[in-house]
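Example record

One chain of 177 residues, shown exactly as stored in the release files.
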Amino acid sequence: MARLEKTDWLDFALSELAEKGHDALKAQTLAAGLGVTRGSFYWHFEDLEAFKRDLIAHWTDRTTEELVRAVVREGDAQAQLVGLMARAFRSGASMERAVRAWATADDHVASLVAAVDWRRIRFAEQLLAALGVAEAEIGPRARMLYWASIGRLMMAHPEDQGLSEAEIVKLAALMQR
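Predicted structure tokens for this chain:
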């Protein structure tokens, strides 16, 4: 077996988190799942706090930074807003729910997730500003969009709560008035 990289640990930990919850994020449990010793965990992570920080950073890159990069390629600000909303209102729930459940049980994780929340809201604010939304309206609208997208993910069957392309376009137009 090839030597594990830090990203191997992080990818596996995210999949375990989504499938089994934060109780599965123990060095011994993860090592057993990867077929290695617990020493490998400590080779890649100084301690549990470093692991948490790195795991949330990895989740952020996969769920936020990749999304931002994809949305920016959509074209003008209006197309970007529609693209952002389409992704936000059609995304899967398991990973987001698992991370947020973990954040309710761990203050350190909660502070890391809060920073991600604000990064996402700031991106929506940038798009609304580029569309000429009045400065006083940018923050409340961006927060409302974000809260709605997270709220949908917390519903019992979020996959049944998607919006059509036409509905997303209409909502995006409403947000920029």
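Notes: The mean pLDDT is 92.
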